Amino acid sequence: MYHNQWGGPLEIAESVEDDDRSRNLDLDRASLQRLDETQQSWLLGAGEKKKSNNIDLGCMTCSKKLFKGFVFIFVVVALIIGITVLIVKFAPRHHHASPPPDNYTVALHKALLFFNAQKSGVLPRSNNISYRGNSGLKDGLSDSSSVNLVGGYYDAGDNIKFHFPAAFTMTLLSWSVIEYSAKYEAAGELDHVKELIKWGTDYLLKTFNSSATRLDYLYAQVGQGGQGGPTTPNDHYCWERPEDMDYPRPVARISTGSDLAAEMAAALAAASIVFKDNAAYSKKLVSGAKALFQLSRDRRGRYSASVPDAATFYNSTGYYDEFLWGGAWMYYATGNISYLQLVTTLGIGKWAGAYGGGPYYGVFDWDNKLAGAQVLLTRLRLLQYPGYPYDEVLKNFNNQTNIVMCSYLPVYKRFLRTPGGLSVFNRGNPAPLQYTVNAAFLASLYADYLAAGDIPGWYCGPTFYLVQTLRDFAKSQIDYVLGKNPMKISYLVGFGNKYPRYVHHRAASFPRNGHRYGCTEGWRFRDSKSSNPNTIVGAMVGGPDLKDHFLDSRTNYNYSEPTIAGNAGLVAALVSLSGNNKTGIDAATIFSQLPPMFPSPPPPAAPWVP
Fold first, then answer.
1. What pLDDT sits at residue 38?
2. Cα(167)–Cα(263) distance, rounded to whole angstroms?
3. Is residue 243 within 8 Å of 517, Cβ to Cβ?
4. Residue 161: DSSP 8-state
5. How confident is the model at residue 80 (pLDDT cuts 50, 70, 90)?
6. I need a labelling partner for 48 at 20 to 30 A (CA). Which of 14, 226, 331, 510 fits?
């Protein structure tokens, strides 16, 4: 045994050493409670590692209880999602039908079909009018002129082709497509209406030398009305199906006709915008329009002065309104500033009657284009604003358009009005509906022009009217046509349950029995007390009298005869009102050919280099 310097032995008793070790170990374990898992495992031996209630997930540590909760929630959510997917996949599906189209869209479908029924020439298989076939296959060719005038449209219930109202019809249809192509497409009628326009413009291109830059003549009419007889049968004396015509059909050729030439130029120019995606055809239309408009300016005079038969049915009262109308369309189609300079010349507007009144001021139809031309040129001012030196005249047109719109409102009593609410624009003459629907179109269109320019309304004297006032007027007139009238009759054939059954229309009046009926043999179908065997769907008849009375009689054409010009106005009004007002007009397409009004800003300067 060794002794230390204090006198005690160096050996330590074994029992004392064990007690100290035990006491120190208890203290160390208490300290270990404050150490993390890694430190404990390092300090403690394998047999002394602390049992943990946590789970190490690598990126984080959580308690076993919390982890189990997460797993349970995940499984439940996965089950819910899986069951939902199975239900959606295998459960029977219920297809919700789209809402039915509004009345204006339904009527639009029908009104366009009337043009299919009026086609002349070799009909396409897609024409879908069962009682119509090829007709007029010798038009022009059997005449001394020997020109191919096969095709086009018959004007009304007869078999004559009047080119003056026909050209207006194409202009009006094209205008409606340019403004409302999205609405036509939504109704599923865009391709149809474009096909109808092309049928008409293809024919108009035949009525003059469309390959020439300057013209000496054009054709104004095929067929003849007026008083005929047994020795001089014509389209009005005879009552025959178009397919059975066997009487002479003379052709009217003229060298002076400013109104007709300018209207035809308007039709081709407007159509060139409709078909702008077909570059070759659009260019052909513009070329023809230029030649026609030049002819209208070079050889002044009314076309009906040269065609007595036309003067009886479609007499023209002047041609300065066609200068405005045709010139505006020529500017839109070509972008040539000379046309804008022409239509903003004070003299043109003055001679067209733009600054005066008169009983027919504000009436828009196949003869008087002034109201339409002023609306068309007001569009340029509101949405393009060419500025000086054109704005003075354009502002006058704008002001006159506002006055016309005021005159349409019943409160001002500018035009006659029937007890049932129909505004009568032809001063009480027969067949008022074609004038009414044209006014409805202009009102609805002008409302959309104002809306596109963020203009809330317009003034009539001191009174301010919102644009909705114009739409309400347009709707009231079209609703009258569609059946909201004292007689509860729809003047659009095939629309609603009650509509005219004795339409003055040759093709609709003959039975389909394979028999050919001659000139006077058809009189018995004209005078028959039975309703038409063929329903000429989409035809808008002439309309009621001033007391809202309508006579459904085949022999009284003033009430019951439809026309293509009248139907064009109805189609334009219907498409403008169809769908919802949020669609509005296509503000840009009509301006697609116009050059910039102001010079482009210069390019930015090159960066400065020291």
1. 47
2. 6
3. no
4. E
5. confident
6. 14
Residue type present at position 90: F
Contact 241, 129 (CB under 8 A): no
Side-chain-side CA neighbours of residue 465 (13 Å): 23
> What is the pTM for the complete model shown?
0.84
Do 556 and 541 contact (CB within 8 A), yes or no?
A: no
251 backbone dihedrals φ, ψ, rounded to 5°: -115, 135
Burial class (CB in 10 A: 0-12, 13-18, 19+), 511: middle
The residue behind tokens 């114009």 is: 470
| Residue located via tokens 């309104």 | 321
CA distances from 311 to 277, 291, 299, 514, 572 (A): 38, 25, 19, 37, 27
What pLDDT digit, counting tens, does each position of 289-300 carry?
999 999 999 999
Instruction: Report the alpha-carbon distance of residue 37 to residue 52 in Å, rounded.
Output: 8
Cβ atoms of 370 and 351 within 8 Å: the answer is no
Which pair of tokens denotes residue 377?
């040129």
> What span, in angstroms and rounded, lies between the C-alpha atoms of 217 and 253?
7
- Nearest CA to 134 out of 151, 146, 149, 148 is that of 151
The pLDDT of 554-583, averaged and rounded, is 94
Which residues are designated catalytic? 158, 504, 552, 561
